[in-house]
Specification:
Length: 809
């Protein structure tokens, strides 16, 4: 294939002449002829004798109509040739207006390739992977002829996907998607009537399922995709990103077209603005969505008044957009406006009123006001039960919301009760094999996971996964979410390699289905960061956290609660590395974002104060540490209550930092077990100093009187314990005492500073390849490893703890 064929194109006049010839030769059938028909019935007969490409004849007859190509045409041969040619002419007219009349020359394979021969049969792989891409870069512009827009043929053809990808991946190459004028109107109508139909086009790109007329071409393209382009996921995502931008452009363009026609004060304009807002919100463009909702609202208020049905709907949409932005107070304000109108116009006992209560409850939950969230959900539930019945999906969904609220409050038993109600109704109304049922299993699994009942959680997650794979497929964002949940549970069990394997599955699916630059992708990077952090591979963890942060800043913005969470994770990783300056920097950034977006009185804000307090303590600044920890305690107390595990953690740490912590003589109960937290920090110093300190403690232990073991195998000895903040494992002296506790502290002869009531232990089992002992209690799991000076195995400790538990039951 000569280079000329890849660099030259035909003029607009040549396209017009060919179109006229087509009409003249086939006056009755040209409108129904495909590009393939035109090739066989017009191009091949005209070029067969010379065995050449159509462009070669054109060059001889009218050389002025052949010149360096400025636009590469990507199209499907099943298209009607008249539609393709019309798109080229429409595009040329637009270009002439925009580019001051600069001539357009199209590289169009029907003309440029010799249709009497298989021109790609003997091309080397390098041509597909390198030469072809460079040729498109040399042309500088790819025009994708897209139709029908609801199910675009090019997205199913290997050649077209490869052409689009080569254009997208070349820096400086412009890619334009063009519809026929008739399709433009159909698309605008769809945006008016069904915005989801527009967004659905994005999920149909699957390069690995694309086909080609010539099997050899398909093989060569697929080889190029796998060896050079980064795989099918990279190609799929690049094309989806381009389509996403196109969808947004078309949605916004429809509004601007009405505005240009002077129709921007009509009800039709308001309706279109509302629909375009939904499209933008779907794509995460929340600020732009809000602008269109507000434009629609101004018209609806004027035409319907404050109590109009469409006004209420727009208030609801504004609440949803602000909630996704993390601006919870604004979200609540708009939901309450929606609620007031809905109650007055439809009544308190109406399903739409219940729906608004659910939205309002979700916003209060995001604010951290779980009691008000529960109040809203209970109102919604009462309405649904009365109006729709107990056995209805909306009733089940509200039970799920209540479960989530109680889960957030730390009341896991109540959460489980509501999740189980949700599950029972969902199975009965939707069936066992339904994505909604899978979501119910997921919610229930999360609650058991939070109770450290990991095996139960895994069973529920695996049920959810089986349903999602069967109903939605392996390559679906919801399937990826379930892999993430399974990963979290194995992470909690200390099986980090298994967790990482599951997170990587989730990541591959998320990148392929949602793209690299999506909040869900960032969440999976966060999970991978957590797992590597707990493995002690802090540099790897930081790399994943940084990836997550970059995505969240780009997609959600710097001032977003989710962005703050990633700063929080980075802060923890740097703290574990001992880089306290960077750790404090990230935690303070998280705090500033949370104060601005969530407010001073929010549990997440309190968490930032808590983490900053610990860091100041690590650096020896007791005054700053106490001030921050007091802030954390005050906010936790006022938001989640004095009995919440986080509140108890803050109270205990504050006592410890002040130096007024004392042993409670073994009187702690299961309810106060959350106080059994991080061990005291090791002294600062070099690694050698720390080893010497441990050795000194061991000498003290060797000099002490030998301890008698009880019939239930009372044990004492050195282990290493992991801190709650995913800190490194630190030496501690552990013992099973006669008061029914597993106690641990910094030195053997000293009084144990931490005590775990065995009456509150849910399970004691070996994990992470029998290299760890996991002692699960409500709200957390303690993780121990052997120490170099340990004279008893983890299996001994596991047996002894379970023996004591069984003896007391």
């Amino acid at each position: 294939m000569a280079d000329q064929r890849l660099t030259h194109g035909v003029s607009v006049e040549a396209i017009k002449t060919f179109f006229a010839d087509l009409k003249s030769e086939f006056p009755d059938t040209y409108t129904e002829m495909t590009t393939e028909d035109a090739c066989k019935q017009l191009v091949v007969p005209r070029t067969r004798q010379d065995n050449c490409a159509y462009v070669e004849q054109l060059r001889k007859q009218s050389p002025e109509h052949v010149n360096k190509a400025t636009v590469f045409v990507s199209h499907a041969w099943r298209y009607k040739i008249a539609d393709v040619l019309n798109v080229l002419l429409e595009f040329a007219e637009e270009q002439a207006r925009e580019d001051d009349g600069q001539p357009v020359f199209f590289w169009f394979d029907l003309f440029m390739n010799n249709q009497n021969a298989n021109v790609t049969a003997n091309l080397p792989q390098e041509w597909w992977s390198t030469t072809f891409k460079e040729s498109i870069a040399n042309i500088g512009h790819v025009l994708l002829v897209l139709m029908p827009w609801r199910d675009p043929v090019p997205l199913t053809r290997a050649w077209c996907l490869w052409e689009i990808f080569c254009g997208i991946s070349n820096e400086g190459t412009e890619v334009t998607i063009q519809l026929p004028n008739s399709e433009e109107q159909a698309l605008e109508n769809a945006i008016f009537d069904d915005y989801e139909a527009v967004t659905d086009t994005l999920v149909r790109v699957q390069a690995e399922r694309a086909d080609a007329f010539n099997p050899h071409d398909k093989h060569m393209i697929f080889t190029a995709i796998e060896s050079w382009a980064g795989g099918f996921g990279a190609v799929n995502q690049a094309v989806k990103d381009q389509l996403r931008a196109w969808c947004l452009q078309k949605a916004v363009g429809a509004v601007e077209a009405m505005r240009a026609r002077g129709e921007d004060s009509t009800d039709a304009f308001a309706r279109l603005c509302g629909q375009v807002g939904l499209v933008l919100n779907e794509f995460g463009e929340h600020d732009r969505a809000i602008a269109y909702y507000e434009a629609a609202l101004a018209i609806r208020l004027r035409t319907e008044g404050e109590k109009g049905e469409n006004v209420a709907a727009l208030y609801n949409n504004l609440g949803e957009a602000y909630r996704h932005k993390g601006e919870c107070d604004k979200a609540v304000a708009f939901y309450e406006k929606d609620l007031a109108i809905t109650v007055e116009t439809l009544g308190e006992k109406h399903p739409s009123t219940a729906t608004t209560y659910n939205g309002l409850g979700t916003a209060y939950g995001d604010k951290g006001d779980y009691d008000r969230a529960i109040e809203c959900f209970e109102k919604a539930l009462a309405i649904y039960v009365e109006m729709l019945g107990e056995k209805h999906p909306s009733t089940a969904s509200t039970y799920n919301n209540l479960g989530s609220a109680y889960y957030s409050k730390g009341d896991y038993d109540k959460a489980i009760a509501f999740y189980e109600k949700d599950l029972a109704i969902t199975v009965e109304t939707l069936g066992e094999k339904h994505p909604g049922t899978a979501d119910s299993y997921l919610g229930l699994g999360v609650a058991y996971y939070s109770k450290s009942e990991n095996d139960e959680a895994i069973q529920l997650y695996e049920k959810a996964l089986a349903i999602k794979v069967e109903t939605l497929g392996e390559k679906h964002p919801s399937t990826a979410e379930t892999y993430n949940n399974l990963g979290n549970t194995y992470y909690s069990k200390g099986e980090y390699d298994k967790a990482i394997q599951l997170y990587e599955k989730a990541l591959a699916i998320t990148v392929e289905t949602l793209g690299e630059k999506h909040p869900s992708t960032a969440d999976t990077y966060n999970n991978l960061g957590n797992a590597y952090s707990d493995k002690g591979e802090y540099d790897k963890a930081i790399v994943f956290y940084e990836k997550a942060l970059a995505i969240k800043v780009e997609t959600l913005g710097e001032k977003h609660p989710s962005t703050a969470s990633t700063h929080n994770n980075l802060g923890t990783a740097y703290a574990d590395k001992g880089d306290y300056d960077k750790a404090i920097q990230h935690h303070e950034t998280a705090l500033a974002i949370r104060v601005e977006t969530l407010g001073e009185k929010h549990p997440h804000t309190a968490t930032s104060y808590f983490n900053i307090g610990l860091l100041h303590d690590d650096r020896g600044d007791k005054e700053q540490a106490c001030a921050c920890m007091q802030q954390a305690l005050d906010v936790f107390t006022s938001t989640v209550g004095p009995d919440h595990p986080d509140t108890r953690d803050a109270e205990r740490e504050l006592r410890r930092i002040r130096g007024d912590e004392s042993d409670d003589g073994g009187t702690r109960t299961a309810a106060s077990l959350g106080e059994e937290e991080d061990e005291q920090k090791q002294q600062e110093g070099s690694g050698d100093d720390q080893v010497q300190a441990v050795a000194g403690q061991q000498d003290a232990a060797d000099d002490s009187e030998p301890q008698e073991r009880s019939p239930q195998q009372q044990l004492a000895g050195w282990l290493r314990k992991r801190g709650r903040r995913r800190a490194a494992f630190r030496p501690c002296w552990c013992k099973l005492d006669d008061d029914g506790h597993l106690a641990y502290g910094k030195s053997a002869p000293g009084t144990a500073k931490r005590r775990i009531p065995l009456s509150s232990v849910l399970s004691a089992e070996l994990g992470h390849g029998d290299e760890e002992l996991h002692v699960a209690v409500p709200d957390r799991t303690f993780v121990f490893r052997l120490h170099a000076h340990s004279d008893t195995s983890l299996a001994d400790w596991c047996t002894a703890i379970n023996s004591r538990i069984n003896a007391s039951t």
